[in-house]
């Protein structure tokens, strides 16, 4: 993402997994205040950790003071394996979280995702809740409701969706959120990939982060 991005591999269940870590500017913050994991969109449709929305989320969290890590899902870039419909991807994200918690112990954790990545992170959060080690908060952009069996999410989740998303219609997201009584922030005129509206994602997450 920038000249200071650290690229590394971790050993996954089906082989190496390619990861990228970005840290806050050391001139303004000597030690990260939290740990954020960012999940990218569907790998079978060109999704990678270098996706613009995933990068925007990563930049947002480093700006908030978080050590922020992205991972290429199975079969993408240098990551081994093949797409596993979110099951293996959730396992891999849990492995990455454990790795990062060892490297940055005791920090609060945020899980962020875009499109298919929202399914993976929501499933991971449910697993963490069951083990009494839940992440502090989720940020879901273009949540994959209707495409995947999205689980329930915590009430403090930040949700952002494009008004004109024709990949995941806003109506499907509202149907998923309505029984949970959880709001979503809609960006007028935005499509699924938030062309020319990426700045709204950063502004919204930054402004909402400390409010709930």
How does this structure look, described?
This protein is 30% helix and 22% strand. It is an alpha/beta fold. It has one domain: Rossmann fold, CATH 3.40.50. α3 links the parallel β5 and β6. α1 runs parallel beside α5 and α2 packs across α3. The protein starts with 5 loop residues before the first strand and ends with a helix. 44% of the residues are buried. The model has no long low-confidence stretch (mean pLDDT 96).
What are the SSEs and their pairings?
Elements: E1 6-12, E2 15-22, E3 34-39, H1 52-63, E4 66-71, H2 87-103, E5 109-114, H3 116-130, E6 137-141, E7 158-162, H4 170-177, E8 185-187, H5 198-208
Parallel strand pairs: 3-4, 3-5, 5-6, 6-7, 7-8
Antiparallel strand pairs: 1-2, 2-4
Helix pairs in contact: 1-5, 2-3
The overall strand count is 8
Whole-number count of domains: 1
Average pLDDT reading: 96
Write down the CATH class: Alpha Beta
CATH H-level superfamily title: Alpha/Beta hydrolase fold, catalytic domain
State the secondary-structure class.
Answer: alpha/beta
Rg over C-alpha atoms, rounded to the nearest angstrom: 16 Å
Poorly predicted tracts of residues: none
Shape: globular
Run of helices and strands: EEEHEHEHEEHEH
Question: Which CATH-level-2 architecture?
Answer: 3-Layer(aba) Sandwich
What about the largest sheet? 8 strands, mixed
Question: What is the helix fraction of residues, given as a range?
Answer: 25-40%
End-to-end Cα distance: 29 Å
- Give, in spatial order, the strands making up the sheet with the most strands: 1-2-4-3-5-6-7-8
What portion of residues belong to β-strands? 15-25%
């Amino acid at each position: 993402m920038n000249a200071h991005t650290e690229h590394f591999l971790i050993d996954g269940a089906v082989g190496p997994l390619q990861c990228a870590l970005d840290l806050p500017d050391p001139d303004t913050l000597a030690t990260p205040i939290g740990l954020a994991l960012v999940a990218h969109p569907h790998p079978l449709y060109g999704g990678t950790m270098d996706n613009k929305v995933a990068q925007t989320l990563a930049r947002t969290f480093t700006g908030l003071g978080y050590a922020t890590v992205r991972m290429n899902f199975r079969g993408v870039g240098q990551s081994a394996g093949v797409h596993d419909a979110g099951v293996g991807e959730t396992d891999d994200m849990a492995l990455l979280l454990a790795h990062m918690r060892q490297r940055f112990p005791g920090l609060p954790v945020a899980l962020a995702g875009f499109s298919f990545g929202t399914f993976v992170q929501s499933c991971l959060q449910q697993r963490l809740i069951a083990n009494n080690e839940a992440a502090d908060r989720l940020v879901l952009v273009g949540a994959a409701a209707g495409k995947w069996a999205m689980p329930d999410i915590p009430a403090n989740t930040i949700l952002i969706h494009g008004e004109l998303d024709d990949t995941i219609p806003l109506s499907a997201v509202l149907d998923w959120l309505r029984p949970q009584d959880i709001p979503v922030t809609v960006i007028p005129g935005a499509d699924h990939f938030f062309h020319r509206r990426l700045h709204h994602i950063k502004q919204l997450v930054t402004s909402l982060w400390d409010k709930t």
